[in-house]
Automatic annotation (TrEMBL):
Transmembrane segments: none
Record's subunit section: Forms polymers.
SUPFAM superfamilies, A to Z: Actin-like ATPase domain
Protein name: Cell shape-determining protein MreB
Subcellular location: Cytoplasm
Binding site for ATP: T20, A21, N22, G164, G165, T166, E212, K213, I214, K215, G292, G293, A294, L295
């Protein structure tokens, strides 16, 4: 009997997008039931969990020595096993809304560039966290399914997922990745760029939460029709006192321009390795962007100008990967071949 034969009958199977910035859980036939930052706060003396997800993220940069605020994933892969397992266990339990009588089968989305060791780490964490069976799916494939691209046809589909820790770009045809490029640069790097820029240019020290807020409020990759300003509070590096200064979207664009260029360069490099017939399909259909980074103002326009091709930001860009994995869960017979076949032990 195939391992999937019970998929259709099990009500509690779930798909998880275990992201550097956000973790989303899709419950079979139930849609997205959890969407929270991948952040955990633990007590430093007894290692007990204090908060997971949104409340933990609010503690970032505001914690006393007694509390450690941890982002257990880095660059798209697990950096802290123990904490990832704790987080997963909590999320799986919450998705079930009851004690686990039958442990769920789980599909976890993983970056396409991950190593065998990293795949095993994800599988083992999900197993220890209470799943019965773990299957992996490459994020670009999940994203493409979530975006309703016709991935099973003999046709080149180019999708780029720009997350917190990684940006992955892939060309998919006949349900498989033909070529891919993965860079460990994403939204987190943009936040760091903003912190460094303000420190150097304005003598202002801000934390990651503020940097992210600046990025999502006035950050842009391309000149805006109406440039924006924002009052930012931070610490003056010289005096040490809290101050508020006005910053502009032009300044932030300069701060992040190098990282934006790196992301666009990854697209150009992939085209160099893409067969001409597939390139022709992509030229006609365009490049599809997903992930939170795709929401950076003017990024689509900047890419369009640089590579001279149509660019589309997929609706619900932040949920696209888990939605795709959820579709696989809901219709496993149709999508079986897209799962990663085997993890070498
Ligand atoms: N409106 C926005 N403008 C710019 N960036 C945004 C916006 N909204 C979210 N982001 C950024 O998107 C990133 C999170 O995206 P996403 O949830 O897709 O990442 P992830 O899947 O957790 O990470 P990864 O795929 O790298 O593991 C964060 O860096 C966040 O700041
Ligand atoms: Mg992601």
């Amino acid at each position: 009997m195939s391992v999937f034969d019970f998929f259709g009958m099990m009500a509690n199977d779930i798909a998880i997008d275990l992201g550097t910035a956000n973790t989303l859980v899709y419950k079979k036939n139930g849609g997205i039931v959890i969407n929270e930052p991948s952040v955990v706060a633990v007590s430093t003396d007894n290692k007990k969990i204090i908060a997971i997800g949104n409340p933990a993220k609010l503690m970032l940069g505001k914690n006393p020595d007694e509390v450690r605020v941890i982002k257990p994933l880095k660059d798209g892969v697990i950096a802290d096993f123990q904490v990832t397992e704790l987080m997963l266990r909590n999320l799986i339990l919450r998705a079930q809304k009851k004690r686990l009588l039958v442990r769920p089968r789980v599909i976890v989305c993983v970056p396409s560039g991950i190593t065998e060791v990293e795949k095993r780490a994800v599988r083992d964490s999900a197993l220890h966290a209470g799943s019965r069976e773990v299957h992996l799916i490459a994020e670009p494939i999940a994203a493409a399914i979530g975006a309703d691209l016709p991935i099973d046809m003999a046709c080149g589909n180019m999708i780029m997922d720009i997350g917190g820790g990684t940006s992955e770009i892939a060309v998919i045809s006949l349900s498989h990745i033909v070529v891919q490029n993965s860079i460990r640069v994403g939204g987190d790097k943009i936040d760091t760029d903003i912190i460094n820029y303000l420190r150097k240019k304005s003598n202002l020290y801000v934390g990651v939460q503020t940097a992210e807020k600046i990025k999502t409020t006035i950050g842009s990759a391309n000149p805006l029709k109406q440039e924006l300003t924002m009052d930012v509070r931070g610490r003056d590096i010289v005096s040490g006192y809290p101050v508020t200064i006005k910053i502009t979207s032009e300044e932030i664009r300069e701060a992040i321009s190098e990282t934006v260029a790196t992301i666009i360069d990854a697209i150009k490099r992939l085209f160099e390795r893409t067969a001409p017939e597939l390139s022709a399909d992509i030229a006609e259909r365009g490049i599809f962007l997903t992930g939170g980074g795709a929401l950076l103002k003017g990024l689509d326009e900047k890419i369009r100008k640089t590579v001279d091709l149509p660019v589309h930001v997929v609706p619900d860009a932040l949920e696209c990967v888990v939605k795709g994995a959820g579709k696989v869960l809901d219709d496993i017979d149709r999508y079986r071949q897209v799962l990663i076949k085997r993890i070498e032990d």
